[in-house]
Amino acid sequence: MNLKVGLWQSQQLQMTQQLSQAITILQYSTVELNAFLESKALENPLIQLEQPRQDTPHQHKPQYYSTKNNQSSRQHTIDWYDNVSVSKANLGEALFTQLNMKSLTYIEKRILEELIYSLDDNGYLRIDEEVFLESHKLERDQLEHYIKRLQDLEPVGVGARSLQECIFLQLNRMKDIPPLVMTIVQDYFQPFAEKKWKGIAKSLHVELRDVQATADIIQQCNPRPGAAYCQDVSQYIIPELVVSLGDDHDINVSLHDGTTIKVKYNDEYTDFLQDHPEKDVQNYLQEKKQDFEWLLQSLRQRKQTILRVGKMLAERQRLFFLKGPSAIQPLTLKQVADEMNVHESTISRAVKGKYMQTPYGVYELKYFFTAAIKSVNVEDNEVASARTVKNELQRLIDEEDKKKPLSDQKIVNLLKEKGYEVSRRTIAKYRDQLGILSSTMRKRYE
Question: Which residues, at least 6 apart from 419, have a Cβ–Cβ distance to it below 8 Å?
Fold first, then answer.
């Protein structure tokens, strides 16, 4: 066996702290970004915040819409600043309050705060664990330790990564839970959820009534532990992009810059940076200055990316902005990513939780991405957008006889008559996405 020693070059993308921060900031919604900036200001004395202006002279003031109203209706216009007093503590604030009562190191608190920012509205943890490990230089057992600390907070079940884990966390804090219940949740959760109870009973050598008793206990758990912090609170959409129609059907896209907190440099520390006699203080402030500059760069990149995506949507969905939602065209994240010469994940982060004010109302950016549906009885292989088919599906459900609701196959047949070729499986998927129950569950007997 011959051994050789050689040198070679290779390229690797390193997940730097700066890149990680830019990626995180891009995917934040306006509300999440403002909360993040406030937390950064608490840890960096060089960061000074300026609250958004209530109005900008000589500019069109965007309208704000409550999420409880019809998204495209212009009759429910409200002024955001007249309603700021209706909010109450959200899930993040409740968890931060609990963190502040614990003895934590700076690193522990920072990582736990990042995990809290990664929770969805239902309290589930939504992170790419590999990216999180790399960006925070953690081992997997360390990350699990931090996640467990998050899961120790209230409400019970928060920080779960799946429904199974959420239920298990809640059962684990209950008293006198039969061992059979924990066994079924740990080892048979999927077949249990699919009501394959006979197989479970046979495998565990128990009676069906025992499995039924397990179901009765599990029903006491809350599958959405974080949702209680969102109930009975008006939630408002703050559009970051504004679209207006100019002369000759020009479509103008601009950033509404008054939605986010302004980040400024705290001039009071200039003399400290230049003249402070203690080297440790100077090193500390230099580190915070670099952190401040990275933050500004990340914020600039976020604005540029969102604006580029908005302009691309205006170009690719031109008919929507000229004629309305019925004219929306098929469009995928990959198509936009290819035209902008960026990765598809960048577009996904840029549209997450971002909204655009249009002449037809306020829409989430992801609304403009929809798959193509093959049409029938038309020439030149014309296609319709999945959004158009979903709108038609919703209309059919709204107008159906609730005592004799339409089956999925009947909906397929009705859509085919209108020129849309979709499968029964696709209709079932669209129903699920729209939150529409099956015909059996929709049936009314009175």
Answer: 375, 376, 377, 378, 384
Classify burial at 432, counting beta carbons within 10 Å of its beta carbon; exposed 0-12, middle 13-18, buried 19 or more. Answer: exposed
CA distance 191 to 214: 13
- Strand positions, DSSP E, 202-342: 236-237, 241-245, 251-255, 262-265
Predicted pLDDT at 2: 56
Q: Which two tokens stand for residue 41?
A: 């200001």
Rounded distance between C-alpha atoms, residue 85 and residue 100, angstroms: 24
Task: Quickly state the pLDDT bin for 151 (edges 50, 70, 90).
Answer: very high
In sequence order, what are the residues at sequence separation of 6 or more whose Cβ sits closer than 8 angstroms to the Cβ of residue 30?
238, 240, 259, 260, 353, 354
**Coil, strand or helix at 376:** coil
- Give the residue-averaged pLDDT of 171-188: 92
Rounded distance between C-alpha atoms, residue 240 and residue 25, angstroms: 14
Radius of gyration of the chain (CA): 26
| Calpha distance 368→417 (Å, rounded) | 26
Q: Is 392 helix (H, G, I), strand (E, B) or coil?
A: helix
Average pLDDT value for residue range 141-162: 92
Average pLDDT over residues 289-297: 90
Contact assessment for residue 196 and residue 210, using Cβ atoms and an 8 Å cutoff: no
pLDDT of 360 strictly over 50? yes
* pLDDT for res 53: 63
Q: Is the pLDDT of residue 259 over 90?
A: no
Domain segments of the chain as ranges: 88-233, 236-368, 372-442
Tell me the CATH number of domain 372-442, given options 3.40.50.300, 1.10.10.60, 1.10.8.50, 3.40.50.1220: 1.10.10.60
For residue 56, give the 3-state DSSP assignment. coil
Query: pLDDT band for position 79 (50/70/90)?
Result: very low
> SS3 string of 211-241?
HHHHHHHHCCCCCCCCHHHCCCCCCEECCCE
Decide: helix, strand or coil at residue 406. coil
Rounded to 5 degrees, φ, ψ at 63 are -90, 155
Exposure of 95 in the CB half-sphere (CA atoms within 13 A):
27
pTM higher than 0.70:
no
**Structure tokens that stand for 430 in this block:** 């669209």
Residue 106 identity: Y
